[in-house]
Amino acid sequence: MLQAVIICTQHLEITYLNNQAVAMFDLTAEAAIGKPITSLAAFTENKEFLHSIERLSPLTIDLEITKTDHKKIFLQCVMEKTEEGFVFFFNDVTENRKKIEELLMANAQLELFAFEASHDLQEPLRTITGFLRLLEDELNSQLNDTSRQYMNYAIDGAERMKRIIENLLEYARIGSGTENFAMVDTNEIVNGVVESLQAHIHETNTQIILQPLPSAYAVDSHMHQLFQNLISNAIKFRNKNTVPEIEIGYTENEKDFIFHVKDNGIGIDEKFFERIFHVFKRLHSKSKYPGTGIGLAICKKIIENHNGTIWIESEPGKGSCFYFTLPKK
Ligand code: ADP
Fold this sequence. Notes:
The protein has 329 residues and is of the alpha+beta class.
């Protein structure tokens, strides 16, 4: 459908409406001209729209109206102020809206499936790991080098699968709507993470430069997880010939806090900047750098669940800087 247009005086009385507006709002031009736009049946029940018109803000509004045949349609309205009054443009976005809802539904079903599948896989895996250990104990003296090696491969494989499943479950749980948002002191969170990684930090001689951080409206456990993933990656992907240095800090603009976790590690080629945030996407073999490839996907999901964005700037050989935003509330 083409764009519907309604032109009003400064007192919001309709002076013109095009054919699309006549069809969209089930009107006749004669009946509508001279009436206030706020008195049209489509809007009288829509408090949000009436309120926006009163304040003339925001200038773009999404609204749902019920047609005379009881069908609901979704509109996007843009208001513009002119010298004589106001012009309202309406676009029917029902189809887009339906597609988005279908996609969200499909996505939610997939996540539920992943969650249930991962959950159900834990039980047989526990059985495999448990019996492998019993077998190892039982056969201990009879195992030769080759069979001991096979046994170790099997145990390693089962343990790796356990970590993947645990990470997948963590990933699936984010955004379930049960999280507690509150003001959290991100200094405390980062201090806690650094404390828990202390042994590894010490062993790798990593220098941590911790700048003062703000308090933000967030989920405490998710922030912990986020900093933990970023800082432990910064240690893991260190440059073997340089003293590892990690700086954690932030800047801010009117709307957001912009945090960064910066390292002087191996860096990443620009062509992989997108890919590393997807589940299971890794750039190195698991023998060189262990991991499940879910850590950054978890970070992205956490940040999106906080209405923020996450991205990376990096240069191979020089280091990486991960940025993420948290909206100020
Ligand atoms: P994992 O660390 O388990 O492999 P992640 O999802 O945390 O999985 O990271 C995905 C990939 O992104 C890593 O395998 C690595 O190639 C790259 N990466 C992540 N953080 C860094 C970093 N600080 N420096 C260099 N590469 C990184």
